[in-house]
Each structure stands twice: as C-alpha cells, then as structure tokens.
C-alpha cells in the first residue's frame, strides 16, 4: 500500500508526497520532509510505516502534532482522509487506490515460467523410451501392398535393459482373500419348493399303492 500526504496549507499547497519509508518531519536540513516555518521544530515528528500502515509520532515539538485537530502525545495510526497537522501546516492523508487491487499477472506458458514436476518412470517406460523409435520414424519408408499390408518390415532390436532393473524380480502378489459364497434367498426358496413337491408326490404315490393293495386283497 502506497501512502501519500497532500499539503493543504503553506507554499507547497496541493503538492503530494509519497511515504515509502520512515520519514523525519521538521525544519532541520537533514529532515526527510523539511518544512520551512518558524513554528515547526527542527525535529518535529516522524512518519512510520508498520505492516503497510502509516503512523505518526510527535517528537516533543514545541507547537505540537495534530490528527483531525486533536494534539497527540503518542503514536497514532493514520487513515485515508485524516487531517495531519505539524504546528500550523496541514496535510491530508491519502493512499493510492490502485494499490488496493491485486494486479493480474499475465498467464505465461509453462515452458517459460516453470517446468512440470518430473514423474519417475517405470522400467517398461524406460525400455520403451530407449528402444522404440518415434511414430514418424517408423512410418517413413514403409511400403504397402495392394491390400494395404506393410512390406519389408524388419523386426526392431529389443531395447536395452536400464541399469538397476532386475528382470528376474517377481513382484509380490497380494494375498487373495477367499470370500464366502452366500447362497441367495431365491435359491433357498427354490430348494424348499422342490423338496415340498417331492414329499407331496411321495405321499400321493403311497396312497395310490394302498388303494390298489386294498382292492387286490378285498
């Protein structure tokens, strides 16, 4: 945030002064803001920047420092629109409006700003990168038959095995967990109906045999 004070009285009326660092206000030649007035002390006051806030401190001046017409005796935080007075010289406190809005940074291609994080490649990807030619290179010079089949294609050499890759290493397979097969309720109902039908047919057959036996021995 850029703070400014604008002179309201005196020879510099209308002039704006940017406060970009701590400033000494007074009549002394080494003052950052030198005010040519007999009412202003040699080291009158100090303007301080703290956490992007503007503060004013009176340095035991003879004619005092005022904020909004009130004399101060300790550090006071200033706000936009406050009236700041050193003896009889008045200023208006301002801050740049454009600094309140975050600037929109233009979007740049990743190649010009930052590179993508490199992701470790697997052994298969490393072998593919080292041994497989580019697609355009594989297509160049390939002759096709009338049926569209490629001719005179040589078998590429196997890719070299990257260093540190153990082709005999067997990755551990996760232990298989047996899942108990739960018989569905529908299958249970069908089985019960089947058993009931068999039982009923058996009873009917026994009754028929009993009737035949009774008729035979009658």
Give the % helix: 10-25%
**Radius of gyration, in angstroms, nearest whole number:** 48 Å
The string of secondary-structure elements, in order, is EEEEEEEEEEEHHHEEH
Walk across the major sheet and give the strand order.
Answer: 2-1-11-10-7-8
Report the average pLDDT across residues: 76
What class, by secondary structure content? alpha+beta
Strand content: 15-25%
User: How many strands in all?
Assistant: 13
Protein name: FHA domain-containing protein
Pfam family, one: FHA
Keywords: Membrane, Transmembrane, Transmembrane helix
Domain FHA: 23-72
Account of the protein in words:
This is FHA domain-containing protein. It holds the Pfam family FHA. Keywords: Membrane, Transmembrane, Transmembrane helix. With 218 residues, the protein is α+β, with helices and mostly antiparallel strands. It has helices spanning 110-113, 123-131, 135-139, 185-217; strands at residues 3-7, 16-19, 23-26, 33-34, 45-50, 53-58, 65-67, 70-71, 76-77, 83-86, 89-95, 143-144, 150-151. The protein is built from four helices and 13 strands. Mean pLDDT is 76; it is low at 110-115.
């Amino acid at each position: 945030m850029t703070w400014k004070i604008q002179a309201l009285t005196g020879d510099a009326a209308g002039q704006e002064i940017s406060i970009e660092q701590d400033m000494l206000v007074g009549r002394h030649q080494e003052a950052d803001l030198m005010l040519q007035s007999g009412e202003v002390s040699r080291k009158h006051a100090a303007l301080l920047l703290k956490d992007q806030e503007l503060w004013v401190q009176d340095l035991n001046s003879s004619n005092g420092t005022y904020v909004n017409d009130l004399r101060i005796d300790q550090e006071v935080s200033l706000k936009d629109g406050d009236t700041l007075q050193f003896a009889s010289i008045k200023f208006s406190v301002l801050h740049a409006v454009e600094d309140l809005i975050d600037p929109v940074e233009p979007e740049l291609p990743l190649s010009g700003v930052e590179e993508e994080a490199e992701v470790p490649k697997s052994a298969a990807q490393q072998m593919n990168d080292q041994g497989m030619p580019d697609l355009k290179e594989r297509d160049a010079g390939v002759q096709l038959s009338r049926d569209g089949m490629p001719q005179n294609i040589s078998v590429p050499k196997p890719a070299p095995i990257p260093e540190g890759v153990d082709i005999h290493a067997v990755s551990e397979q996760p232990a298989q967990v047996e899942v108990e097969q739960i018989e569905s309720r529908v299958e249970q109902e069908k089985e019960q109906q089947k058993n009931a039908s068999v039982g009923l047919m058996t009873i009917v057959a026994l009754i028929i045999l009993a009737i035949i036996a009774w008729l035979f021995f009658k």
